[in-house]
Amino acid sequence: MMRSLIFVREILDITGITITETGELGQGARFEMVEPKGMWRMAGNDT
Question: 16 exposed, middle or buried (CB, 10 Å; 0-12, 13-18, 19+)?
């Protein structure tokens, strides 16, 4: 699992997105992703 997360982190780093595992032991996995401000848009939002 850890190697997969490292691979994902390297790919996301190209676009400036960060990913962090924030889950608690025994509670399951939780990941948070942070995108650079202004680098995303909502699908179908033409305005």
Answer: exposed
Distance CA 33, CA 31 (A): 7
Distance of CA 47 to the CA centre of its chain: 26
33 - beta bridge partners?
Answer: 19
Residue 23 has pLDDT above 70, yes or no: yes
Residue 42: CB partners within 8 Å, gap ≥ 6?
none
- Alpha helices by DSSP H, listed for the chain, are 2-15
SS3 content of the chain, % helix, strand, coil (to 5): 30, 15, 55
Across the chain, what does the average pLDDT equal?
A: 84
